[in-house]
Model the fold of this input.
Amino acid sequence: PPSVTNENNNVEVTYSGPHAFTWKPLTGYDCTRAECPRGDDILTKGVTEIQQINCTTNDGAFKLVFRNKATDAIPWNAPAARVKKAIEKLSTIGKVNVIFTNTSFNASACNRRAGIANTVGWTNNTIKIEFLTELGDVPMMRAFSASTAAFSGLGERINTTEYRKGTKENVECNARGICDRTLGRCTCLSGFNTSDHQGNFGQYGDCGFWNPSTEPYLVEAEGE
Done:
């Protein structure tokens, strides 16, 4: 997040998030015009991005990096829920789906290297990560070893590839509202309201939720 210096010359960190107006991306020749929350136009077709990770090792852990933020170390034999939890702790990601292509009850994130005993149920897995709240063609995740033990043996590896390119829009006010450049707030068109970036009512401050009658979801303006 951006940092500012207060009157005592102490650095204070500020945060940008749903309805957090302490900091907004600024634009214009004099940097006085605020940008508004972005999201997908709910009435047009588009798909979420899916990236996949393939890893083969017999020990250790790995980390994933997205937009320059790294996860905590993920054990090589972690279940899907553990991988999902590590990814969603990143400040650069909201919600994801994590799917293992190996559906056995004891499937691990990484495959055991061929020739290792007791590999039944642990092999032939690919980690698929679907981005639910990061829209469009998002940057590729990077994966690397979090320990000297992992991915150091013959035939051991880890890599990331794009399985499906995201095509959902990521436009101001979801193309269904008007941006107030002085405040960085969206004024949504009739029938639209703030969403969770998945088509439901949420707190992103955009215009990605559509309902013929949004009256039950109207949110009282902050400070009023």
About this structure: The longest strand covers residues 157-164. Helices lie at 80-88. Residues 1-7, 11-22, 220-224 have pLDDT under 50 and may be disordered.
